Amino acid sequence: MSVLLRLAVLFAALVLSATSQALTQPDATSYGYPLANPFEATIATTPPALRPALPDDEDIDQADHSLRLRPEREFSLQKNFWPVSRLTYRLARQDGPAPLVFLIAGTGAHYASSLNEYLKKLLYGAGFHVVQLSSPTSYDFMAAASRHATPGISSEDADDLYRVMQAVRARHPHLQVTDYHLAGYSLGALHAAFVSRLDESRRAFNFKRVLMLNPPVNLYTSTSNLDRLVQTRVSGIDDSTTFYQVVMAKLTRYFREKGYIDLSEALLYDFQQSKEQLSDEQMAMLIGSVFRFSAADIVFTSDLLNRRGLITPPNYPITESTRLEPFFRRALQCDFDCYIREQLLPMWRVQTNGNSLMQMVDQISLYALEDYLRRSGKILVMHNADDIILGPGDLGFLRRALGERLILYPRGGHCGNLNYRVNANDMLEFLRG
Question: What would the pLDDT profile of 308-345 be if each residue is shown by its tens digit?
């Protein structure tokens, strides 16, 4: 064997070794993420010492921009919606030619959510242009970009996102892009899959790689799991003591013992290591409450923009001085299941001439993309075995549909380990190819 041939074989072996290491399934003993409780991981995420190094904001060439996408709606938007008659996004650009990643936020989150900001910094530090987009379930996207302002039909949400991405590219004709990539977390990961399939036919971007982080498989199962968290029975809570009073009392005692108030991102992890730590039931209630507020935002905004009269009377005058608290209280009584049955399903039935809830669930979940996921080698899913949004059979579906393109971590809850440096390295290895 010639020297050149031996070098070629050695190089190929090194490449294959690096690839297999990047996609190796981590096991419970070797995976160093320290939080075994999925509720705690979801809330506290990663200890600061185990996070990757990230660039500071002042070292990032970034700016916010806005798009005028639904001019026909601007005149009919209620005055309290005027700040979001245009859709805002954030662009971080490199000095020269570079690949670009579109980031799609999770349920109810806008473009500058904490996870989107973290992913932006990680990718920008690795040499990517980054565009941060709000979730189609956020009030700003619903008001300024959504055609129906009734998010939940995944193919429709993907179509709205795709139009936004095309408008972003048209807005920056001189940005030097070598390749386009797509990434999303939680519900944004499911949206990324539907956008990727849409791009197969429209070919506006020809996404090179698509990264899905902790996606729901069955969307109805995931929302049902989150709805049930709010119903958790919590010790110490009765008719005279609310859940929030219990949590605030714990935080007060915690800060009093520390001697100062620290609201840094390390707060929750440090708090959970103290004697004031939340119980499993309290953490479940906290997570469920956050998602219930997201559901209330969707319920209120969709009802108001479509004049359905479920939350606000269709002709009720709403101005900047209108007290919205009574309407938001009413919206809080409607969880994800309520939104699906009262607003999403009726709209879908009009579009499809009938059909059942379960048929709709199949079409809006990853089940609808099973064949595409099987054959599309550019898609990678990173998930956690203990993710609280997963239901029976979900991991089996992902294994069947993706095979080796599923990286399953033994723990991390819902998106809790995304800022763990091992996960960060896996993301970059995949996107860099």
Answer: 999 988 888 777 677 777 888 888 889 999 999 999 99
In sequence order, what are the residues at sequence separation of 6 or more whose Cβ sits closer than 8 angstroms to the Cβ of residue 328?
296, 300
User: Phi and psi dihedrals of 130, rounded to 5?
Assistant: -135, 135
- pLDDT tens-digit readout, 13-47: 333 333 334 456 888 889 999 999 999 999 889 99
Q: Mind listing the pLDDT tens digit for each residue in 398-419? A: 999 999 999 999 999 999 999 9
CB 388 within 8 A of CB 287: yes
Q: For residue 370, give Cα distances in angstroms to 189, 312, 403.
A: 15, 39, 12
| Mean pLDDT score of the chain | 86
Domain spans, the chain = 18-218+366-432, 226-352
CA distance linking residue 417 with residue 34, whole number of Å: 10
Give buried/exposed letters for 258-296 (b at 16+ CB in 10 A, else e). eeeeeeeebebbebbeeebebeebbbbbbbbbbbbebbb
Q: Residue 427 is encoded by which pair of tokens?
A: 């993301």
208 CB-side CA count, 13 A: 12
Q: What is the dihedral of CA 258, 261, 262, 267, to 10 degrees?
A: 70
The CATH number of the domain covering residues in 18-218+366-432: 3.40.50.1820
Beta bridge partners of 384: 409
Are the C-beta atoms of residues 330 and 336 closer than 8 Å to each other?
no
Q: What's the confidence (pLDDT) of residue 288?
A: 82
Q: What is the pTM of this model?
A: 0.87
